[in-house]
Amino acid sequence: MKNLYFIVALFSVSIGFAQSPSLKNSEIADSERKAASKLMRVVTNPNTANYDVTYHRLKFTVNPSSYSISGDVTTYYKAKQNMNSVTFELADELTVSSVKQRGNNLTYIQNGNNELVINLAATQNTNVLDSLTIVYAGTPPTDSDGFNTYTHAGTPGLYTLSEPFGARDWWPCKQDLNDKIDKIDVYITAPSQYTSVSNGLQINVVNNSNNTKTTHFRHQYPIPAYLIAIAVTNYNIFTQQAGTAPNTFPIVNYLYPENQAANQANLAVTLPIMNLYEQLFETYPFHNEKYGHAQCNFGGGMEHTTVSFMGGFDRNLIAHELGHQWFGDKITCGSWNDIWLNEGFATYLSGLVVENLDGANAFSDWKADLIDNITASPNGAVYLTDTEAQNSNRIFSNRLSYNKGGMVVNMLRFKLGDAAFFQGVKNYLADPNLAYGYATTENLKAHLSTASGINLTEFFNDWVYGQGYPTYSIGAKNWTPGVVRFTISQTQSNSSVSFFEMPVPIRVTGAGGQSLDLILDNTANNQTIDKNVPFVITGITFNPKNDIISKNSNAFLGTEDFELKGAKLFPNPVANTLNLELPNNATIEKAIFINALGQIIKQTTNETSWDVSSLPTGVNFIKIYTDSGTKQMKFIKS
User: Fold this and answer.
1) How many CA atoms lie within 13 A of 253 on its CB side?
2) What local confidence, expressed as pLDDT, does residue 538 receive?
């Protein structure tokens, strides 16, 4: 990671966190779940499972001063089986006025279950491609945030926010996590004084005769329905240039005029963050089009493909939503059970920005804040049960999907090492079976296992599928010269995990200011592990860089098992001859003299009296080995 600290350091001074990362992540989680009803189905609507969408031409007419929409949506789709009807998801509040196929009117019904069922004129056979055009209008439902109007500085604005289930609130769609649309064209007609935003590249703007204009966007990468979005208000456009030749691209920012100058300054950090992500992972996945931001009036942000909708422009939010372009937009979670593949990674990427722009200490503090939030409750897994995946509040749980998911990514990096971890993630992103498609937790696990050569089944069972966290108790003893013996045990906060298998980081220190970071490969409870340490340890710290999830853990210097009771040194202080008095049943085997720097300066066998006149003045130590145990004692050479 050393070579990644090339990012311009001034950003770490001028742009930081005004509040804790876990609180900021909570705002992001709130915005990303706003579109959802509290309880929704986890599985694909079975009534939309018999076809694949290949293309949408989406024509919307909107006015930010009016809470309404009219649309003309043409969908190209391929039959997966012989079919006589096609079902789209569409809110009951929106009224369809016509459905045409190749210019012919079709019959249809809106069944009161937020579905539009279209009767085909003839059976459409398996693998046959066809299209339908649906014309509709109305007032979108107000019990979700799929479609929104508002004002800023007295000016009307409009935006959509469809994750996870809100697309149907403003257009007829197939809303699932197994069928990405190959490409889309979006036409937004709005009053001429406003600027419109959507995914992909702006192709043109046409001024109409009725004081409106139509803005055409084209997006030619696969996209799920929930990532399609529009926004309209009196934006000013601020463009940055990013990427590395030949893969350069614009970052197009749509900003409110009233605070454009301040937000342009805040957005400067987007470029070093983009550079960092491209260095760590791969070229920006949509470099043939654009990236950008559109300002909206909600807390947090939403990672619509190629254009994130943003309530503000602090560094954490910019980093999180940009991270989603790789994790969430290029590769999308294959079910809401796997939402941590989106949110855990985006959260961790915002932590990588802290690490690379602010340094190791700030990154340690960032991880500590997440750990405090994660361990506020003893329960909860990263991976969702089917029941949990029906609840948008649980899907977008800040504590579990974002913070615990992010720390699990960090723990995978810690366990595998940087080389294997980043290579495994690169392979995951490049996998042709996953890229611009969907992935599950097992897909990620397979790539990381292959890259590292490590079987990760136990790790995933404990930390991804299991609930809770461990509490460690670690004892350390100066065992023999140059060797420290550790005993490590743990308890678990939730019974779903009997033992959390994880390398455990510790730091030992010596009286002379020595410090050594060690990793204890903890594979069993009450385990004994010997480590080579080139000094006598006088202190021990658990998890010094906050790399693993734990709560109330402690590390201590142990003496009770090997201390030789009743042994005495005299005289002390001593000038010439030092004597040892042992308990009656103890026989000395050897003695080692150690100076204050932890260096061995004298060794003897079975003596109990020593000439110490040549030893350095001040504090020294002697370690006594007997048939009844060992003991280290301090004496002062005068």
Assistant:
1) 26
2) 93
